[in-house]
Design goal:
By secondary structure, the chain is α+β, with helices and mostly antiparallel strands. The chain has 2 domains: 170 residues, Jelly Rolls (Sandwich), CATH 2.60.120; 108 residues, Homeodomain-like (Arc Repressor Mutant, subunit A). The strands form 3 sheets. Strands 2-9-4-7-10 form a 5-stranded antiparallel beta sheet. It has a 3-stranded antiparallel beta sheet with strand order 6-5-8, with no helix packed on it. α9 crosses α12 and α10 crosses α11. It is globular, with a radius of gyration of 20 Å.
């Protein structure tokens, strides 16, 4: 009998009939929540998500970090992140999914990667909007809704343009709320490049020299860079990513501790358990029990 692992949803899992059901999805948030009840449990996606809350409140948990949901707040999720939420019955807003290929067919991958509210150690994935800012974003969501409801010539190009407007405006508002980031953009882009390399290789590549080579830096230069950006050497950033994946698998799958250790390329499960306890103060079994008991 196969082991249960955390579900990873794709855009076609949500809507079969759309302008482009493989690459893009939009819905009023209240309809989305009522139609897709399976999203109430923790899950991953293989696409980017924008969620604008116009009304309601609750809690949004993204990779074991809890964020308050309030009216006029907007969340940003990147592929691979695990999330779940608890929302009040009166929740309303807008939700949009798009794939990387959807966006990069017109705009550059570098531009998509420059939006640091997606999956970064440096920032939080939400903004709280002023009324005028909120209304600007609602306008673009409404244009998307109109285009999907009445598709016509070049609808896909317009949807990509409206998505770009949403990201561009959101990033402007994000920088307005975090002015210290404006002067750090080149270094932030470099750090995001490092994060992407780690994401692609962390399960099989633990040699810090590999990451230095991929970044075209010496190991000393890379450690100076990461210390300056997040106050940690590359080795610690790498281990934290491994521990995060361990937590995901412990809580959101029924794989045994040994199976998780082997899945993450640990030859010795006992070493994995010792490392996990050193980094979290819990054994893997204790962490699993604690998280499962707190969810009831």
């Amino acid at each position: 009998m196969p082991k249960t692992t955390l579900p990873t949803y794709q855009i076609p899992d949500f809507e079969k009939v759309s302008v482009d059901p493989q690459e893009f999805y939009y819905s009023r948030l209240e309809k989305h929540l009522q139609t897709h009840l399976f999203i109430q449990k923790p899950h991953k996606h293989d696409f980017y998500i924008l969620v604008l809350f116009g009304h309601g409140n609750g809690t949004h948990i993204i990779d074991f970090k809890s964020y308050p949901v309030t009216s006029k707040s907007m969340f940003f999720l990147a592929p691979g992140q695990v999330h779940t939420w608890t929302l009040s019955p009166d929740t309303k807003g807008h939700i949009l999914f798009f794939s990387q290929s959807f966006y990069t067919s017109i705009f550059s991958l570098a531009k998509l990667n420059s939006y640091i509210f997606f999956n970064s150690n440096l920032t939080i994935p939400l903004i709280n909007l002023e009324v005028a800012q909120f209304n600007e974003l609602v306008f673009s969501f409404q244009k998307i809704e109109e285009e999907i409801s009445h598709p016509s010539w070049s609808s896909m190009d317009l949807l990509k343009s409206y998505t770009n407007i949403l990201l561009t405006l959101s990033y402007r508002y994000y920088l307005d709320q975090n002015p210290q980031l404006k002067s750090q953009t080149p270094n932030l882009n470099q750090f995001q490049k490092l994060e992407k390399i780690i994401e692609e290789a962390f399960t099989v590549q633990r040699d810090v020299n590999y990451y230095a080579t991929q970044m075209n830096m010496s190991l000393k230069q890379l450690n100076l860079f990461t210390q300056k950006k997040v106050g940690k050497p590359i080795s610690k950033i790498l281990i934290e990513r491994v521990i995060l994946e361990s937590k995901r698998l412990l809580v959101h799958s029924d794989l045994s501790v040994s199976e998780i250790a082997f899945k993450l390329q640990f030859v010795d499960p006992s070493y994995f358990s010792r490392l996990f306890k050193k980094k979290t103060s819990y054994t893997p079994e204790e962490f699993r029990l604690l998280q499962k008991s707190s969810s009831f």
